[in-house]
Amino acid sequence: MLLTSYCLLMVPILKPMDLMVEASPRRIFANAHTYHINSISVNSDHETYLSADDLRINLWNLEITDRSFNIVDIKPANMEELTEVITAAEFHPHQCNVFVYSSSKGTIRLCDMRDSALCDRHSKFFEEPEDPSSRSFFSEIISSISDVKFSHSGRYMMTRDYLSVKVWDLNMESRPVETYQVHEYLRSKLCSLYENDCIFDKFECCWNGPDSAIMTGSYNNFFRMFDRSTRRDITLEASRESSKPRAILKPRKVCTGGKRKKDEISVDSLDFNKKILHTAWHPKENIIAVAATNNLYIFQDKVN
């Protein structure tokens, strides 16, 4: 009987599988936010970092997980009086006491933690004057800033709203020094974009290493790159075809009307379910990463 049971034992067959990467947290910083966290930024002192939600920004020590300091709080006593929310925040790359945060009203506040423990008063306030002639029902929605990024030099900062990217000089608060239209052809589509909630999409933006070019995402798995010195721009597409080894990305163009050329795509044919919200640029090399839905694409300018 015992011998029979031994004979029936089956040895498992080893089958090769794809490598899976699993992340495990080293520390968990909990119970400090009531709302969804929209930003995390590590300080240049390498000891602290900030986390931001819709109404508050907290300062953490990397070694202390159960306690943080509230440095910005815009929550009104009566929530019915709430007029704006925090949309993004980031530390200055070199000055550990300076950080910025943007709002849903299209404004940016620069704060200095040396002024007070609670930075309820900003050091600088950046806002572009609105043209009354162009105001519409969607003006406040599309002016909401979805991302803010300091340049690596610390001289400039970049903001992304729904239709454009703006570059600000930290020494000039009145208006941006550069404005780049990302997908201006969508202005005529704002009604339908509002109905399908795409108008509330939050696009990120990023600098290249020398701060000479910027990148941000769009719809139809398109992403845009702008050269700051020449003001030239290009639209590229992240797709399975372009991800093949040594494949060259071809510029794409969107046709807004009239006769469409062979290499153009009509604005009415854009797929708004395919969107690139997250982008990153290598700090030292010409390597970029774009996230398109559940796919991560990594491109570089040339392969040796």
What does this structure look like?
6% of the residues lie in helices and 34% in strands. Strands 1-2-3-4 form a four-stranded antiparallel sheet, with no helix packed on it. Strands 5-6-7-8 form a four-stranded antiparallel sheet, with no helix packed on it. A hairpin with a 3-residue loop joins strand 10 and strand 11. The protein has helices at 2-7, 139-143, 190-195, and strands at residues 39-42, 48-52, 56-61, 68-73, 86-91, 98-103, 108-112, 124-126, 147-150, 156-160, 164-169, 178-181, 205-207, 213-217, 222-227, 233-237, 253-255, 264-266, 276-281, 287-292, 295-300. It has a domain at 180-303. The longest helix has 6 residues, at 2-7. The radius of gyration is 23 Å and the shape is globular. With 304 residues, the protein is mainly β. It is built from three helices and 21 strands. The mean pLDDT is 91.
Rg computed from alpha carbons, rounded to a whole number of angstroms: 23 Å
Q: How many helices?
A: 3
* Percent of residues in β-strands: 25-35%
Structural class: mainly beta
Overall body shape: globular
Helix and strand pattern: HEEEEEEEEHEEEEHEEEEEEEEE
Helix content: under 10%
Distance between the termini: 66 Å
Task: Fill in the keyword field for this structure.
304 residues; mainly beta; 4-stranded antiparallel beta sheet; Serine/threonine-protein phosphatase 2A 55 kDa regulatory subunit B; PP2A_PR55_CS
Indicate the topology.
Layout: H1 2-7, E1 39-42, E2 48-52, E3 56-61, E4 68-73, E5 86-91, E6 98-103, E7 108-112, E8 124-126, H2 139-143, E9 147-150, E10 156-160, E11 164-169, E12 178-181, H3 190-195, E13 205-207, E14 213-217, E15 222-227, E16 233-237, E17 253-255, E18 264-266, E19 276-281, E20 287-292, E21 295-300
Parallel strand pairs: 17-18
Antiparallel strand pairs: 1-2, 2-3, 3-4, 5-6, 6-7, 7-8, 9-10, 10-11, 11-12, 13-14, 14-15, 15-16, 19-20, 20-21
